């Protein structure tokens, strides 16, 4: 049976406070916490190591000043984490899966309370007052994302699953680029879809160990995307083998991090995986093809860290997120694809919400208008932008040029305050307002925890 985690899942993003920066570097020699190697942060009070994934100090208490890390005692105390990270018995989990699968669907079930697959005639304990799924069809066993619930202590960062259309758009882009191998990082539904396609081979890297129960040892790796950490030593071999097998098949990273996750460590992870691939396959040292689903307002951060990655206008829809699906938010989902694949390979011809811009030569949202002055389709947030001749760029339709500020601002503004560099009052991140904050999903009040 799969060992259960005895700690809080790290699906909350890393610290966000705008005064704290992450130093993007290899983390293998950093102190450990239950979520793998910590990251090095630089704040007003100096540099310190803290958890790569937990924003809340209470979820992960490891906090080590950079200079303290040189002390023998501190190092020794930190070693306990090597033993605290649970060992998963992958072989046993896979044997159990096969056993469950061999039964009639009416004898197969999944217990949400215990987070485990079970055989009904063998295990009655779940039938009393546990929350269970029964029966389990072959289809369900092959698509755990269709019935796994968002993790309990993970109300704010629920596991938003791509709408079918968005998932098939991703596979379509890969196909058009003749890419058949996929590293699915935090994208279990793409992994599931790839399993059914003879054209694709994929490996799932995710923090959520529940997925382990549904795959053989070489298909799921317990992983933290914020520090590029594999929790099981032997999994590095599996990853390397998969990279090697991708040599002449084309390999892409498809990643959908928790909303609010920091860009720097994610960009570092993409760089490290790309480096690993080029070393193993003796290929050119460059960033692997990436499809990264993330909110449009992260654009400046992503292009700053990875200039080869550009934001496409496609609005990524989710099945289980009211605001991030069609009709949920006034201007559609704020999530976009960030990719270094050619935009011309993103074919949206069978989606009526998109049109082919004959000047840009790629598909854009029907509400996006090509600006002849900017020479591009300029919408970022889904609204039709308008050109300001003074600023010499397109701006949101809600903006108006202010002579006092010498720039376009919201009509109601206090002159002298620089709107775009103000931080969101909800999450502290720059580039969007509280009303557009992706984390303010009805539960923002609950989220007012102390952040690092
Ligand atoms: C926003 S959901 C994306 C799901 C995706 N849209 C799909 O349909 O498959 C985030 C995913 O990242 C995983 N995740 C969260 N934190 C992670 C971390 N630190 N490292 C790796 N995976 C993580 C979650 O378990 C979840 O599968
Ligand atoms: Zn931690
Ligand atoms: Zn149970
Ligand atoms: Zn255009
Ligand atoms: Zn313009
Ligand atoms: Zn202007
Ligand atoms: Zn003004």
Automatic annotation (TrEMBL):
Taxonomy, superkingdom: Eukaryota
Pfam families reported for this sequence: N6-adenineMlase, zf-CCHC
Signal peptide region: none
Entry keywords, A to Z: Cytoplasm, Metal-binding, Methyltransferase, Nucleus, Transferase, Zinc, Zinc-finger
Keyword Lipid biosynthesis: no
GO molecular function, one term: zinc ion binding
Annotated source species: Bicyclus anynana (Squinting bush brown butterfly)
SUPFAM superfamilies for this protein: Retrovirus zinc finger-like domains, Zinc hairpin stack
InterPro entries: DNA_methylase_N6_adenine_CS, Mlase_EEF1AKMT1/ZCCHC4, ZCCHC4, Znf_CCHC, Znf_CCHC_sf, Znf_CTCHY, Znf_CTCHY_sf
This protein's record includes keyword Repeat: no
CCHC-type domain location: 424-439
Region feature Disordered, mapped onto this chain: 429-452
Any one cellular-component term (Gene Ontology): nucleolus
Primary site of residence: cytoplasm
Record's protein name: rRNA N6-adenosine-methyltransferase ZCCHC4
Domain CTCHY-type residues, every copy: 352-417
Compartment(s) of residence: Cytoplasm
């Amino acid at each position: 049976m799969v060992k259960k985690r005895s700690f809080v899942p790290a699906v909350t993003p890393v610290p966000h406070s705008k005064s704290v920066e992450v130093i993007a570097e290899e983390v293998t020699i950093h102190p450990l916490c239950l979520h793998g190697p910590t990251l090095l942060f630089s704040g007003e009070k100096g540099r310190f190591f803290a958890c790569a994934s937990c924003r809340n100090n209470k979820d992960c208490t490891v906090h080590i000043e950079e200079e303290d890390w040189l002390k023998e005692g501190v190092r020794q105390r930190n070693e306990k984490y090597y033993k605290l990270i649970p060992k998963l018995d992958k072989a046993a989990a896979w044997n159990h899966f096969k056993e469950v699968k061999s039964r009639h669907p009416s004898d197969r079930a999944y217990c949400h309370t215990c987070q485990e697959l079970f055989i009904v005639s063998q295990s009655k304990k779940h039938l009393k007052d546990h929350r269970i799924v029964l029966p389990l069809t072959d289809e369900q066993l092959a698509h755990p994302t269709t019935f796994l619930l968002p993790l309990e202590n993970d109300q704010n960062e629920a596991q938003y699953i791509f709408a079918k259309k968005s998932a098939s758009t991703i596979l379509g882009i890969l196909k058009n680029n003749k890419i058949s191998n996929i590293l699915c990082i935090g994208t279990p539904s793409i992994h599931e879809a790839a399993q059914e396609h003879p054209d694709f081979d994929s490996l799932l890297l995710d923090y959520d160990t529940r997925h382990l129960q549904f795959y053989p040892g070489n298909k799921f790796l317990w992983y933290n995307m914020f520090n590029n950490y594999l929790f099981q030593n032997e999994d590095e071999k599996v990853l390397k083998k998969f990279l090697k097998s991708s040599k002449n098949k084309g390999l892409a990273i498809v990643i959908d991090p928790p909303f609010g996750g920091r860009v720097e460590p994610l960009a570092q992870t993409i760089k490290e995986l790309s480096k690993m691939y080029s070393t193993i396959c003796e290929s050119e040292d460059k960033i692997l093809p990436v499809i990264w689903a993330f909110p449009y307002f992260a654009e400046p951060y992503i292009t700053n860290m990875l200039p080869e990655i550009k934001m496409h206008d496609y609005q990524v829809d989710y099945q289980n997120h009211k605001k991030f699906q069609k009709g949920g938010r006034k201007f559609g989902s704020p999530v976009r694809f960030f990719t270094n694949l050619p935009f011309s390979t993103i074919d949206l011809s069978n989606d009526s919400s998109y049109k082919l811009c004959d000047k840009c030569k790629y598909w854009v949202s029907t509400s996006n208008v090509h600006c002849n002055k900017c020479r591009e389709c300029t919408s970022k947030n889904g609204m039709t932008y308008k050109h300001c001749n003074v600023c010499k760029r397109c701006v949101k339709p809600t903006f108006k040029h202010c002579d006092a500020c010498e720039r376009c601002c919201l009509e109601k503004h206090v002159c002298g305050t620089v709107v775009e560099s103000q931080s969101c009052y909800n999450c502290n991140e720059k580039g969007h307002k509280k009303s557009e904050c992706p984390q303010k999903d009805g539960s923002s009040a609950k989220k007012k925890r102390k952040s690092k």
